[in-house]
Design brief:
single chain, four-stranded antiparallel beta sheet
C-alpha cells in the first residue's frame, strides 16, 4: 500500500506533448498528475520492464514510426536512451520479455510483428526479424488486410503471441537467434476482430478481447504444445445497448477470479467472474467508465483499484475494486489528460 507511480501514453494530435506520469495514493484513494515525463510523438502504447528500470514506447516522428527506449531512475523520471524508427506508420503495441532481453512491437497498419534485441547503451538495436501477416477477414471495411494489434510473450516466456484484428487470427511463435519461428495459428469466427489477450495467472486459460464483435473469447492454453482452443465466447456489451461500440482492453485480477473488459461506445466495463478450474466466464455487472471512449484501463499493483483512460473525454477515473465480488465503485478522484490511450504502473517488487 502507499504510493504507486504510473505512466500515461497519449495521442499528440491535440494538446498532449507525450508521456505523462501520475501517482495513485492508495490510502487517500486519490490520483495526482505529476506532469510530462517525456516529450514524444504519439506514444500510444507503453511497456515497463519487470525490474522497473526501463520503459518502451510506441512513437511517431514525421513520416516514420517505431519504438523509443527510456531508463527509469529511482524517482520515476524517464531518461531517453534512443529509438529505432523506419519509414511508415508507427506500431500500436510494444512489450518486453521477463529478462528485458527482447522487445516486440505490433504494427496495425503494416500488418507486422517486429522483434528488437535490447541494447544497454542505446536501449534497442535494429529490428532482428519481421513477420508480415497475410490475408483478410469478414468485415471488408476493417479487415481488408492484416492488422496486427498485439504482440507479447506468454507468461512462461517460451512463446510469442500475436493477435491480428484484420485476419481474425492468433499466431504463436518461438524465438531463436533473434528470429520469429512460427508455430501455430488459431482462427476466430469471421468478423470477430481480435485485439488483445490476457492470461490466467494459475490456470491454463487465456482471454481475448475482440474489437469488432465486442466479445471476450475464453481459450484453453495447452502449455505442453503451446496451442490454443476456444472454450467460450461471451458478449462484453450491456444487454440494453444497441449502438456502435468497439472492444478495447481486457485485464484479469491477480488471483484470476475476475476478468474486466472495456467497450468504447457503450463506454462501459464488463466485470466477469471466472469459473474455478474451468476458465469460463459469467457476468457480474456492467459499470460506466464515467467518460467517453475508454481506450484502456489498468488495475493498480495492489489490486484494490482500477483506473480508466477515456480518450475522447480526456480523463482518467479512479474506481475501487471489491476483491471478494469483483465489483467496481467509482471514487471521487479523476485526472484531466489530453487523449489518453494507455496506462502502465511500475511493478511492486516483493
Amino acid at each position: 500500500m502507499g504510493l504507486h507511480r504510473g505512466y500515461i501514453g497519449t495521442y499528440t494530435k491535440g494538446e498532449s506533448e507525450g508521456i505523462y506520469s501520475f501517482t495513485l495514493d492508495t490510502e487517500k484513494k486519490a490520483l495526482s498528475l505529476e506532469g510530462l515525463a517525456a516529450k514524444l510523438g504519439n506514444p500510444t502504447y507503453l511497456a515497463v520492464s519487470g525490474d522497473n528500470h526501463h520503459l518502451y514506447s510506441v512513437m511517431k516522428r514525421g513520416s516514420m514510426g517505431g519504438i523509443a527506449a527510456f531508463s527509469i531512475d529511482s524517482g520515476g523520471q524517464l531518461n531517453e536512451l534512443g529509438d529505432q524508427v523506419s519509414e511508415g506508420a508507427p506500431p500500436c503495441y510494444v512489450s518486453t520479455d521477463q529478462n528485458n532481453r527482447l522487445v516486440l512491437s505490433a504494427n496495425y497498419h503494416r500488418g507486422t510483428v517486429d522483434l528488437y534485441p535490447v541494447s544497454g547503451a542505446s536501449g534497442l538495436t535494429h529490428v532482428s526479424d519481421t513477420d508480415r501477416h497475410e490475408g483478410s477477414g469478414g468485415d471488408p471495411g476493417r479487415q481488408e488486410g492484416p492488422h496486427v494489434h498485439f504482440a507479447d510473450f506468454s507468461p512462461d516466456g517460451k512463446l510469442i503471441i500475436a493477435i491480428d484484428l484484420g485476419t481474425d487470427q492468433l499466431t504463436t511463435y518461438k524465438e531463436g537467434g533473434g528470429k520469429l519461428i512460427k508455430e501455430d495459428v488459431l482462427s476466430f469466427a469471421p468478423g470477430t476482430g481480435p485485439r488483445h489477450i490476457i492470461f490466467h495467472p494459475t490456470a491454463p486459460y487465456a482471454y481475448v478481447m475482440s474489437e469488432l464483435s465486442s466479445e471476450v473469447i475464453v481459450l484453453y492454453f495447452d502449455t505442453s504444445t503451446g496451442r490454443f482452443s476456444i472454450v467460450q465466447t461471451i458478449s462484453a456489451l450491456p444487454d440494453d445497448f444497441h449502438g456502435h461500440s468497439q472492444g478495447s482492453a481486457v485485464k484479469i485480477s491477480s488471483d484470476g477470479r475476475f476478468v474486466y473488459a472495456a467497450n468504447r461506445g457503450a463506454d462501459s466495463i464488463a466485470v466477469f467472474r471466472t469459473e474455478s478450474g474451468a476458465g469460463r466466464l459469467s457476468l457480474v455487472e456492467q459499470v460506466s467508465t464515467c467518460g467517453n471512449w475508454p481506450r484502456d484501463f489498468e488495475l493498480d499493483p495492489s489490486g484494490q483499484f482500477l483506473v480508466t483512460a477515456n480518450q475522447n473525454s480526456g480523463n482518467l477515473v479512479l474506481f475501487e475494486r471489491d476483491a471478494a465480488t469483483g465489483r467496481l465503485e467509482k471514487l471521487n478522484s479523476s485526472l484531466s489528460v489530453p487523449d489518453p490511450v494507455c496506462i502502465k504502473f511500475l511493478y511492486v517488487n516483493d
